[in-house]
């Protein structure tokens, strides 16, 4: 590939360059370096191809059939417990309400809605201390104390639990 000047001739340095390239090619052919270079480049490209090959997924070894589960002799006939997770249910959970049912006795004990609720009145004795059944060790109502008016434990509104 000669660069032409204004007068149409190749420059002197281009002629010298082309002559040296031809001489070097002839020497390489005599020494067999062209074939050797092609073989080396072929081997290098093979190594590169092997190196960049995508790895195949390794399959796990097949699982052998598991031995029967060790169980207590008393549980041999019982169905085994499954600890498998249940699938997620994305719906709304149903809310259930248990209505409170009051009898006439409950309504009498609760009193009328006209009277105001007095805090800390129930569950305190005349001396101002909390009432606690020391014999049975039990209390009733939400405040966890025995009702002052309650003579028998079963007659209390809250019933002892």
Note down, in words, how this protein is organized:
The chain is mainly α and 161 residues long. Among the domains are: 12-51; 104-161, no CATH class. The chain has helices spanning 12-31, 33-51, 104-110. The longest helix has 20 residues, at 12-31. The model is unreliable at 155-161 (pLDDT under 50).
Radius of gyration: 50 Å
Q: Which structural category fits the helices and strands? A: mainly alpha
Helix residue percentage: 25-40%
* Average pLDDT taken over every residue: 72
- The biggest beta sheet, please? none
Helical run tally: 3
Shape: elongated
In the predicted model, the low-confidence regions spanning at least 5 consecutive residues are: 155-161
Helix and strand succession? HHH
Distance between the termini: 108 Å
Indicate the proportion of strand residues: under 5%
- Secondary structure: number of strands: 0
